[in-house]
Records
---
Amino acid sequence: MKKAIALCLILILTLCGCFGETKEQRIKDNDEYHTGLWITYSELNNMLSGDFKVQFSEAVNTCKEKGITDIFVHTRAFCDAYYNSGLFPKATAAQNIDFDALEFMVQAAHGQGIRLHAWINPYRVRTSDNNIEALNKESPAYKWISEGKGNNVLICESGIYLNPASYEARLLTLEGIREILNNYAVDGIHFDDYFYPENCGEADKADYETYTAATPTPLNIEEWRRGNVNALISGAYTAVKFINKDIIFSVSPAADIDKNYEKFYADIALWAESGCVDWVIPQLYFGFNYPDQNFCFDNLLEKWKKYLGKSEAKILIGLANYKIGTEALPDATEWVLGEEIIARQEQICKEDASIHGHCYFSYSYIK
């Protein structure tokens, strides 16, 4: 039944699709072993504070030297854009440059034969606080609130988010994906682990009450929330594949399978089994001797392989090179020898036929 619902959502949301192609040739996935790297918005901001073209070119050269095949670059982190958008305001750090940062990044990566994936946080607007007045006045979230359409936004203790229950908010995300794919030759669209906001309390109470009042046999609130996220995922996959079936749609969930399902309302196994995602990249940011044995790397790896075993989605593994040498407990004791941990994890991934690659978090820690 769940598979049928997900596939029906794909067909329904196909109506939101559109055809398009950019002139520049994208780089196809030739089924090799992938070595990926995330470049975060904060790393982009650091580059933009200087000579961006020089620094990003150096980053790409470093990636080439280290055998990186895929770069996941933050293009929309907080309902803003590191590219020319008609839907989202320009990220603050990118406002003073006289060129299109994403266009340059695609060209630089492709020049070295590296795929570049546009990394998007579909819901996150602000996480430092929930101060509406601190938002960019051109932000869709601010405009909706100002126009009396606050139902498109969730204001939680943890921050401000686009409302997963809102069709209008979901459509904005899908239009944003199409905008990127129709204007830039990126090789993939990538979501990370920011799905339903954790600890949102009763921020969506009115939406759920509206839903239950109109539905003869409503889902409980947990299944309803998962259904909202499922609709976004199936719509995103459809939007991507309508433009080019070779573009990769990937998701990078947190390591805790149960928390993804119960707190973030992310049914990742369903997405993978229903063919709504091409790559799943769980963030297995733990060593081999973590105090909670459930989160030791080798145990987590086996859990994820079993969890996704019925799907055809490729499994890549997120590795925590940012933890090398950390002094933070409980990782400090083991990660003093972090380079050895990462090397061992790489080898395990490469020797496992069910694993199709690994990804480093993040660029600042591979230099």
---
Amino acid sequence: MTHPTVEWQGSLETGVVAMIDQTLLPGRLKILRCREVKQVWEALRTLRVRGAPAIGIAAAFGLVLAVRGSRARGVETFLSEVDRQAKYLAGARPTAVNLFWALDRMRKTARQHVSEPLPKLKAALLREAVTIQEEDLATSLRMAEHGFTLLRGVSTVLTHCNTGGLATARHGTALSIVYRSQELKRPLKVYATETRPLLQGARLTAWELLEAGIDVTLICDSAAASVMREGRVDCVIVGADRIAANGDTANKIGTYPLSVLAKEHGIPFYIVAPLSSFDPELESGEEIPIEERAGEEILRPFGKLIAPPNVKTYNPAFDVTPAKFITAIVTERGVLHPPYTRSIQRSFKDRGEA
């Protein structure tokens, strides 16, 4: 990525949250500069910024915007403001757990600095948000290294939605492996699904891979089965917005049928996601809240009516892939294998969070 997906620019007092407006790609590259928390909320809700890690980073910076001008006279009043604004931002998207993870980190940071003067407490919040961004950069690189070990003998991968630099601080989750392969002179060919109804695969993944000089072929979502049957795909790699304790994984709608197709055709199906996308509090995917978006996204994609305006719509933004269809899960701490209940629990123990 030539531009960071989302970052803080300037001082605490006058800085802005700068992000690529992904709704305008690939036709136009525009940097959106948010000066108020409501602008960040709107960017989250309308998918100007999207992708689980990027959502978390944007929310952390958004919280700084929300409270930097606070004139609270006491610490408890300030902490109440932090909690209220965190709840407001959390309401923008219900499925991506990185959003809640990042906001919880920010709330904890505020409480860890309650003994400091208010200006220093606010500065600590900005430092934590920057740390979340920097950690994501490092996490993407580690996932790329671990994921690369799974692709020996692989020449072509299929991916769904967008899991590259646009979905993270810069490098990506699933696509970080593709970029790493390119760096190591083992270039991969990529089949990218269009990803209806908002075409993140067509608009974002295809654009991003072409910019990086990677061989990418765009296909309709409904062509995936034929592409697999014809032997064109060696494995499927996708990201995740939330992973339950048993390995069930929520990702962009259309991921679940890809996992079933991969199983049927004997093709490995890999999830690539940071530990911040795991929600060990949820026993299974049945407990993952699934965001349902407006039917207008189906009826009028990009402003053009393509169906009878009075037809009923059902527009879930995500689906859940059962763990039994997942070959392995790549994280920054290594590759997890079934049984996932055990390997996920072990990863959090290693991180000291069990």
---
Amino acid sequence: MDMILSLDTAEISEIEEAASWGVLGSVTTNPTLISKAGHANPEVAIKKISSIIDGPVSMECVSTDADGMYKEGLVYHSWAPNVLVKCPCTPAGLAATHRLSREGIKVNMTLIFSPNQAILSAKAGAWCCSPFAGRLDDISWDGLALVAEICEIFRVQEYTTKVLAASLRHPVHVMDAARVGADIATMPFKVFKMLVQHPLTDKGLEQFMADWQHLQEATAAK
């Protein structure tokens, strides 16, 4: 198993930088993030993002009824082959997911807050489900415990639906998501950057560079 690292953003500069590291495999976004990033046209934004990475790019529906989500899903799917349609875990979202998945359109069932919701998403045919760990932590629930429960249930039941750990707020969330077996972990760019940061790395690099400079100066003085 190889957990995919994903950015939760619509900022093109952030996606391009993370992609340049060679470790970015996915992007999750929604109308709010697209608006915050200043995109005037969601289609243009999603097509641009999909051209940067080959992995799944999730775009959320704004309709709340099954027919509306289904129609939006068809449109999103036409934008790029790697676009996933995000449907909320509601009765209408389940119905839309079932219809879309039967047509071979991948769905990311979002706003998962219980194991039962995750089970329903798998039964509806979602390609992945997104338990929101950080939002549960915000109300004093253990969000990563939910991710672990869902991963265990999916293994036992042999569901093919992937588990996308969402709403990750800090590097420990990412580490724990990998430990419990999440297939994908999505996070803001500030958290993505924190994964690579460590004070001892900075200190070690600073010392290496200082030693190299002293060697160059000593060599030049001979």
---
Amino acid sequence: MMQWFCLIVLCVFLGMPGVSQAQGGGNFIFLASTIGPIDSGIVDALENQFEKETGIRVRHVGAGTGAALDIARKGTIDLVMVHAKSLEEKFVQEGFGTERIDLMYNDFVIVGPSEDPAGIRGMKTAAEALKAIAAKGAPFVTRGDKSGTHVAELELWQKAGIKPAGSWYMVYEKGSEGNAPTLRYTDQKKAYTVIDRATFLSLQKDIKLQVLVEKDEAMLNYISLIPVNPKKFGKVNYEGAMTFVKWLTAPGKGQAIIRDFGKDKYGSPLFFPNSKEWKQAK
């Protein structure tokens, strides 16, 4: 449902006067981004500052990673921002993208009701916690939409050696709408779920769920950029996309915004810089 909605938005938006259809327009770049960074506000912050400094407009459409990559496969997108390594690598291998470029990361956490019926609070690994949830048959909500979050969740279940199934494992029918609606639904169901920390922080005042398991290296959430391949789609604005990529990955530009984003509101950043240039500068 969300994928079709995004495609409709895309078609309408690209039909607007003065908007280049990802077809070589040097002063316009179109981005397909996974929903979490959009919901957090960081995509707008990066786009707006880039436009102020360069005069180049960037506009985005949001979808889960799988859907965002599918939209880009149609050749109407210049750049994607996604977070599912296996899907990203396939996208590049198929020739739709030129390369995966490290941008930033945050982490996933396992949240649940304060009563914690599965007794996972404080466990050191996601695998241990998921085994306990499955053993108890405690309610767990999954996005079930092949988004980056869903792929990451499935990888955690795989590491736990479990194929989740049963009435306790609930697929949120509107999961493709993003992490925020999924988290609200999980709260209503007093269930557990795997969610990115940025989404939890942005909603923590509105929900009763608590972070119960965190800081497992297996739950790091890496977000990448992939320019769409101009050899596949000759009219994409590859030059503009690479200008944006260079700015996003520069230590004193996009990476500095990523480093500080969320500190004023939450007391800690929502994302951490991770570009090759940032790491070299450190």
